[in-house]
Amino acid sequence: MPETVEKLNHTGFGEYGLLPAPRTYRLRFCKTGGMQWISHLDLQRSFARILARADLPLWFTEGFNPHPKIVFALPLPVGCQSLCELVDIRLVRDMPCDEVLRRMHGATASNLDFDRCYVPASKFIDIRAAEWEVRIDGRFVPGGTEDYLRRAEALLTGPSLTVVKRTKSGDRETDIIPLIKSVRCAAEGSEAVLRLCLAAGQAENLSPELVVSVLRDRLGIPEEDREYTVMRLRMLDGEMKEFL
Amino acid sequence: MFSASLLRSVSRPGRYAGGEFGQTVKDKSRTGASFAFCFPDAYEIGMSNLGVRILYGVLNKDPDICCERVFAPWTDMEDRMREKGILLCAHESGDEVRTFDFLGFTLQYEMCYTNVLNVLELSGIPLLAADRVDDPSFPIVIGGGPCCYNPEPVADFFDLFNIGEGEEMLPEIVRLWAEMKRRGATKREFLLEAARTIQGVYVPSLYDVEYNGDGTVRSYTPNAPGVPARVLKRIVTDLDTAYYPDRVVMPYIECEQDRIMLEVYRGCPRGCRFCQAGMTNRPVREKTPQTLVCQARTLYDNTGYEEISLTSLSISDYSGLRELTDGLLEWTEEKKVSLSLPSLRIDSFSEELMKKVASVRSSSITFAPEAGTQRLRDVINKNVTEEDLMRSAGIAFAGGKEKVKLYFMDGLPTETLEDIEGIAKLAKATVERFYETPGHPKRAPLVTVSVSCFVPKPDTPFQWEPQDTREMLQQKAEYLRTKITDRKIRYTYHDSGVSRIEAVLALGDRKLSRALLEARRRGFRYDAWDEFFSYDAWMEVFSEAGIDPSFYANRRRSRDEVLPWDVIDCGVTKEFLWRERERAYAGRTTKPCLETCNACGADCLGGERTLCPKLSKS
Fold this sequence. Notes:
Number of strands of chain A: 10
Helix content of chain A: 10-25%
Low-confidence stretches of chain B: none
Oligomer: heterodimer
Mean pLDDT of chain B: 95
Radius of gyration of chain A: 21 Å
CATH topology of the largest domain in chain B: Rossmann fold
Strand content of chain A: 35-45%
Strand order of the largest sheet of chain B: 2-1-3-4-5-6
Largest interface: A-B, 45 and 36 residues
Number of strands of chain B: 19
Radius of gyration of chain B: 24 Å
CATH architecture of the largest domain in chain A: 2-Layer Sandwich
Structural class of chain B: alpha/beta
Low-confidence stretches of chain A: 1-11
Number of helices of chain B: 22
Strand content of chain B: 5-15%
CATH class of the largest domain in chain B: Alpha Beta
Shape of chain A: elongated
Number of domains of chain B: 3
Number of helices of chain A: 4
């Protein structure tokens, strides 16, 4: 199927009144398929161009090097997909949310799908956790999917699980059990599916990649065959309600 | 397509992700011909190339042609592919490269040749054209780009070359195959038909090469009727109406040229005697400012790039420069889009130009005097003076810049140690100029002197010249180091080993395919990258293949020698080039085309809005 650039219709901004102060709009998008290999840093860099293509009445910082204000909720590790990415942008005109969304659609490929736009009532700093789905190809699971999931659940809900966490200041031993809020395991066909609720945000954060590597180390998925997918499903606030 | 497990195990997996905004995805089975377009280097280099952007667009504009991108996998990916027996795939569909009708390589620099062979091997395609031509299951391998002005060192690996500009020629070639394929024609029949009927097509297998006892070329003879004795390069006559892409495939990962590239005009009217692009892109053809402003705006709307680079060889020679910059500034300021220039000529650099292209973020500016003394600058016909440089540097310093980069070459014909010392003197004078400039920045100045080694190139007045030996180049580099004592001058020097191999590959003949095959056998790849290049390893390759590198790099050719690239006609005549060579040795400069016609011969190609005095008169 041919994928073509939708020619943007330059309406100008005249019909949208100037706001007394710039307004923050929040966009939700899915980052799936090939986009999982694009790092957070590269996405950040590309985002200003996406907004320029979308032809939005952007607010620019007033410094020596003016740039649009773009704030992402939570970085997504390379190799992880997401159905719930959030990003805040600022506009100077009163453009309806569905118009912003329409323009974003025209400016992006299908693997970066914007599905919501609204004026937010929350702050990213209130994000406490994220819900993840890890799917492991059963063919690579030693001892069968059901047995594997039982062992995985026992490991991730045990009294403690010490792992080496790589940080900027060097490797550090950490007990990750307090960072695991909940674990649900189920077999779906030949796939082992783990639903993990992990601490996320500025205060404490646990990467699903680290959990997967622990499973690999302790339960023996061979290093060679890293056929699994990781999907961020939802972000949660301090009351474990969906963060929007 | 690469699996997740493969992508998790390599560096920068974004290189292979695909799915970029602006790409064209077609169903290959529903088009008449498919074309895998390869830039034989890493994704982030290939995505930066203007030629790829243009030709990818022009091929896909045809509903009957499907064009996809191919890049060389990085070495970690290559290792995994070989380990697991995975073949190279095209970027858009993930289909194996060998399933396409064509595999096209753009040859932008000689040091990519080892990657070309590696890409063929990784695609499961036999390296030698002779081993493929009668097997319909393999793609037709074609080459284009600046290196094709001497395609002979890689001639044995290609079925066909595009000589000159591809916007019209390449779709013609692909359409011809689509049509002949429907009729059940063989590849041999197609190659012959293309060579006979499409101007700019060079099919190496249709020419027999004879050599003299001393290894020089005796003759090129077409071995089929109707094939031209010399292949005249193809141009697009009118750049205003020629295809120009209205969009760019937008890379997510950082690329070398991550900006809009606006080609203002093609060619250069100056005639620097070392410069191949200046000779092979004649006649100089301009676009109108109106067209350019319009193209820039469309490209901005479709890309969102924050920078527009005005890419042409010497932008200040463009006749509509003021109209262009004014037209662009009408909307770029509001959109916070900046203008940039890849290079500046120091004789026409002005305060006005600097203000307009204020690449605000950059505190540095680059000039290319190329040689250290006026005598040598006259020899190479650079036509700039020390005064020009001082005036330009002064404007830059007064305008708030404190860093100046100066590009030079060493090893130029007739060069003496005095010329080398001249480089140091010029750098010192630039530092002094900084302190003499009222209103210079408070920070200390930094003058970077970047010296590369002269490589004689085909189709230039210096095509007969020997390159300095590596020892001579190293001595000159060392001598210059002792002459630079000021700590405000930084000296960087290009490896002379790379330049020597480049000279061999640029000036070579078909015998070099032996060496390239040997290089492939030894696993050479990414020779354009310092971390993979090894001069000593190349010397072993040459010795194993029975090739004497000095025969190609360090030998003075006589006027009547048949040169391997004489089979290619770039429009500029050999007589003109020899005249220019004689003037170089006499220390006489030649005026740019704008001022006087020097009878280079390129007017035979025609062209609209050209700076060629012969063509603009008629």
